[in-house]
Amino acid sequence: MDHMKQPLVSVIIPTYNRAGMIAMAVSSVLAQTYRGIEVIVVDDGSIDDTPAVLNDFGARIRVIRQSNAGPSVARNRGAGEARGEYLAFLDSDDEWLPEKIERQVRLMECAGPDVCCCVTNCELEDSSGRPTTSFELAGLAAAPEAGYLLNPAEILTTRFLLYNQVVMIRAAVFQDVGGFHKDLWQLEDHHLALRLAIRGQWAVVGTPQVVKHEQHDSLGRPARIQPLKHLDAVERVFSLFLSQDGAAMSEKVRTAAVRKRAMIRSLHAAHQRAAATNPVTRGIGSLQLFLQTRLYSVLRRSPLWPRPLFSTADATSFNSISEKQCPKPNKSELNLT
Hints:
This protein has 13 helices and twelve strands. It is α/β, with parallel strands linked by helices. The radius of gyration is 20 Å and the shape is globular.
């Protein structure tokens, strides 16, 4: 890529009491092969040694300090201070591989303004500790090395896709949708992803470019150890999505979102019954949970489950991209996986 024409990418890292991890995250950004980057760290009221660790990076990063207000407010604060054409977010306990930003910029520059964001695959562990990827967990394992997801709304209304650490978003679009919802402390990335999904196709990088590290105090842990609170968060996300963006979504997407919200409410009720002191109510709840889990498993393997539609960019032209070699989204090259 011509370095004289590189668009600026603003990398925003919110952090709170991550003195032992923040240096790894920041260093992974500074080690990117793409050089047109500004790094903005928003210290969300840390009371440990995080400020001292950040000071060691000197002028290579910009640090904004604020009272603790939560991850959504911190990310929005960083975005509001950013100068870049693109925004990328990294949690302070995770890291990027060196080509992450370069690969995303190339695809986004080729796609043009109709593609609002680009997501990459991510290395992580599933709930049992097995190494896997975010695309595998979301049913996107067949994503091309470089290409475009043409039906993101159908995918996001039926499953979760890790978003904060893996996305790069056009700054203008981020501001247009209002950024992260300031009152969401969980699944704020899924809410933003849903709002961007109804704007059309996304660019995708199928090769993992992010490594997610699980910490004992990660915000995602309630999904496993506090299922009722997690289901409350999911239900709120879909209620906000339907109320704020209902007019902008297709009837198909609206139906899927309503169905998802109803399923979450039913699961919540089943969990409450399964935790009841009355043995009859507890038994009914346990049976309901079993049946709903089985139904969900069957549904995921049925023709009713939306399959991702990809347009594949040629890997060779992607690696040696020029203005004439851009791998454009091409609806005639759809791959049903």
